[in-house]
Amino acid sequence: MTKEPASDLFAARFNDAGFAVLAFDHRRFGESGGAPRQIVRFDEQVADWHAAIECAAALPDVDPDRISIWGFSLAGGHVFRVAADHPRLACAIAQTPLVDGPAIAPHALSSMTPLAALRLFGRGVADALGGLVGRPPLLVPAAGARGAVASLTTADAMDGDRALDPDHRHTGWEQTVAARIALQIGRYRPGRHASRIRCPLLVVVCDQDQSVLPGPAVRAARNAPASTVVHLTGRHYAPFLESHELAVAAQIQFLENHLHPRDPR
Question: Dihedral angle at the C-alpha atoms of 175, 180, 182, 183, nearest 10 degrees?
Fold first, then answer.
């Protein structure tokens, strides 16, 4: 997921509410460097978050003690790891986060046809082995309809275009990913870090989410010492669609509570 379609709707509203916003692409994606392209490596992406926090803290007029992080879906899962490892954060927001790969993998697999699943995992193995000998990555669509050979084919996977780029402004948006993600995502469990998060954490879940499911995020949030869970009606992309105003209002209120200067009295 690249920064413009994924963050535009929220970044603009946060900025209008008086908060400075720094958006970035993970390495190998969007406008960031790194090759080969379109390869997801979780540790690299988490390192990019730490680099972005350090960059923001060094900017003029930014108080390094009033920095928050925001992430959506897979990046929302990263928020758990980053917040746990960065105690100086003032607060953190994880929107419909992927926190427990093993918990959602059976549902994701059931959303695929058997032939599509077999072809996806075969392509994932070929991609991983090819990467060991320097071959270019084998790419698959990040989302597809049931029966497609794509990273995700849940019922709401195809809502992304109308949610993130309804006017088709982002003509260069590359919606593919190296197929080896199919071998990795089912083992990724960033929610396990929740108990180490010391800053206030807002977790936004959608009760009809078919991509990351609401239950794992709710359970992970319970393990964070200072967490708040906001439930929205809708599927994975509802915060960008029918529940957008509710999502924005909850998140701006949370940021105002934890980032605005306190009255010394």
Answer: -160
Q: Are 169 and 212 in contact (CB under 8 A)?
A: no
- The strand pairing partners of 92, in sequence order, are 69, 201
Cβ(193)–Cβ(82) below 8 Å: no
Question: The tokens of 190 are what?
Answer: 């960033």
Q: CA Rg, the chain, in Å?
A: 18
Extract the tokens encoding 17.
């509410």
Distances (CA, A) of 174 to 29, 31, 139, 167, 177: 8, 11, 11, 16, 9
List pLDDT tens digits, range 53-64. 999 999 998 999
Count of alpha carbons within 13 angstroms of residue 192, beta-carbon side: 8
Alpha-carbon torsion (192, 198, 199, 205), positive or negative: positive
Task: Report the relative pairing of strands 176-178 and 139-141 from DSSP bridges.
Answer: antiparallel
Whether residue 194 contacts residue 251, with contact meaning beta carbons closer than 8 Å, is answered with no
Reduced to 3 states (helix: H, G, I; strand: E, B; else coil), residue 214 is helix
Model pTM score = 0.96
Amino acid code (one letter) for 99: V
User: Element (H or E) spanning 48, and its range?
Assistant: helix 42-57
Q: What is the pLDDT of residues 78-124, one digit of tens each?
A: 999 999 999 999 999 999 999 999 999 999 999 999 999 999 999 99
